[in-house]
Amino acid sequence: MTGLTRRLAPLAAAVRALVGTLAVGLVVAALVWPAHTETVADLAKGAPRRLEMPSVGTKVRVVPIDLNGTTLNPPEDYTEVGWWRRSAVPGSTTGQTVITGHTVHTGGGSMNGLPDLKVDQEVDLVTGAGKIQYEIDSVQIVPKSQLPAKAKSLFGQGHGEGRLVLITCDDWDGHDYLSNIVVIAHPFASATKAHHG
Amino acid sequence: MRPSMIVRGAALVAAASVATLAAAPALAADPVAQASASAVTLDVAGQNGYSGTFSATNDGSKQTTSGNDKPLITALGGQSLLSVGTLAQDATTSVDASGRGSSAACAGLAGQGASLVAAGSGNCLTGGNALQLEAGTLDLSKLQIVQGTVLNGLDQQLQSALQPVLGTLLPALSQALTQGAKALGNPGIFLDLGAVQSNCTATPAGVSGDSSLANAAAYVQIPGGQRIDLVKLPVHPAPNTDVVTKLGSGVVGAITSALKTDLASTLGGQLGALGVVVDQTAVLNNILDQLGEQLKPIDNDLLKATLNKQTKSDGAITVTALDLSVLPAAQQFVHSDLLHLTVGTSTCGPNGRVVTPAAVAVPKSDTHHSSNPVPTTVPAGVADAYPLSDHALTAGRVALLALVGLGATGAGLVGYRRRLHR
User: Fold this and answer.
1) Are A64 and B314 spatial neighbours (Cβ–Cβ below 8 Å)?
2) Coil, strand, or helix at residue B406?
3) Which chain A residues are closer than 8 Å to B55 by Cβ?
4) Residue A63's beta-bridge partner residues?
5) Is residue A17's pLDDT more than 60?
6) Average model confidence (pLDDT) for chain B?
């Protein structure tokens, strides 16, 4: 056994050196590695002020809103939209930014144009720091009865990589709205405002 | 030392390093304290003039700021309404000995000569002159003589006698009205703003915020010097104080009085000999009443403002000192580039606590967020566009719809029952 130990000694030393180097390297990397990779959207990161949907000619004011239990009520002013304050700040690289506004059956709602949006079209959020541009990935109709089952996927903040989720009502049956319409978009560019003075 | 122990020890060090590496973004993503401030936002004719936002965040070891905490009012692009004055927007954070975060912010606008005070002391502007902002001008060129109402109240015999001269009388009155409106010019709607500002704090004990509006008032300036006060805004308004400014009978009266002289002399001249038998005062009053009717949209709703606007959520507060809009109903007679103005928006929190090293070693996962509630219902549809300034009417309309729905359901049931009986 002594002979075997003696023969393995150089190998053990090599392994020790390798693991030591790896550990030190990882510690150094952990200290110097940036918290997250800066993306284009980071440049204009900030609370949203205005939602723009150029393809349907919509420009509306954004105000922060909160959950009431598990109900997300849009702003009472149906010409505005609400940013769920506990969702991701636009420009974040984690979570998802959730915005809702009213559809008004007789017209005039801030999100009346949502059903007309198409995949690949652009949606923009203006923040205090600039504008973040999103490209639409999907437009889906979700029956209201199915929304709770999809809630975590659509609104949860543990995933999403900074994508934008727009939601309003759809499917008017003459008395009520039977579905929600959900538009999901990912950020692809941003433009910052220059500061003077 | 046995090789297996060395390898195990090194592996533990590597695992700890990997855990630290994984935890590093989590630390950066959840600030221990945060606040932000924005002095002014102006939506002017589709352009967005704003002062930017100054933000402060604290990761538990140091404060990081972004944005400009001393923006110049001349840098507000896309508008010419505000060109002199002092802007303030400041935010600060701190972490106490037990690692709990606090934050404070203040933001506002004042006239020239105001001094800036750092965030954390309440207001961030002191002194300074009041500044004046022209929110719009009244466009009187749209006033017109309405033929059908000129002879209201006169007896039938006189109305018949006047019919032959109406063809020349009405154009002459219209011309007199146009000339009178032109001579009167465009009365301006002005805002006087002293120091208008908000502040907030978010501490482990809770959140709070307040606003103050020094010497803030709205008035109409009639060309030629007459100033008619519309509303004086309270210095310390309660949270979410709504103010709807009417033009008021004073302004409508001033306008119609100014037009009265021209119209009266034109009327007398055109009537000639008929002036002796026609009640000219009645005809003139008909015309002036009709002009007053036309001005009603601005008499009812001109400007809408929310003072000390506050929204709170868990551990966070946003306060806006003044949120003002020219109401759409008024835009028929108000020539205005200003659609929306916000002054002094301060946001504090949500804050947290410095994560202890033991907790740092736990890799971040979705469970961090999944315990937080997410929306399961989004009631984002309404049947009709209700009047935004009249909640009672909205409730009444909902009740009416409910009654109609109930009636229709009842009728349907009766019909169905009858069909069953056949």
Assistant:
1) no
2) helix
3) 46
4) A82
5) yes
6) 76
Interface of A with B in 104-123 (CB under 8 A): 104-109, 111
Provide the percentage of residues in chain B whose pLDDT is more than 90: 18
B14, B48, B313 member nearest A85 (Cβ): B313
- Please state, in angstroms and rounded to a whole number, the distance separating the CA atoms of residues B160 and A38: 83
Considering only residues A93 and B366, tell me which one the structure prediction assigns the higher pLDDT: A93
Among A70, A104, A106, select the one facing B377 at the smallest CB separation. A70
Least confident of A73-82, A122-131, A154-163, B395-404: B395-404
Interface test mutation site (partner B, options A68, A92, A173, A193, max chain B beta carbons within 10 A):
A193
- List CB contacts (< 8 A) between B29 and chain A: 35-36, 92, 94
Whole-number percent of chain B with pLDDT over 70: 73
Whole-angstrom Cα distance, residue A134 to residue A87?
A: 17
- The structure tokens 């017109």 sit at B144
Measured between its terminal Cα atoms, the distance across chain B in Å is 100
Helix, strand, coil share (%) of chain B residues, nearest 5: 40, 30, 30
> B408 — contact with chain A (CB < 8 Å)?
no
Instruction: Give per-residue pLDDT as tens, B196-205.
Output: 999 999 998 8
Number of other CB atoms surrounding residue B84 within 10 Å: 11
In A, minimum Cα distance to B402 occurs at: A175
User: B298 to chain A, minimum CA–CA distance in Å?
Assistant: 21
Looking only at the bridges linking them, the beta strands covering A177-192 and B63-66 are unpaired
pTM: 0.52
Q: Which of B374, B384, B386, B397 should one mutate to test binding to chain A, selecting the residue with the greatest count of A CBs within 10 A? A: B374
Q: What span, in angstroms and rounded, lies between the C-alpha atoms of B382 and B387?
A: 12
Residue A110, number of CB atoms within 10 A of its CB: 29
Average pLDDT over residues B364-379: 64
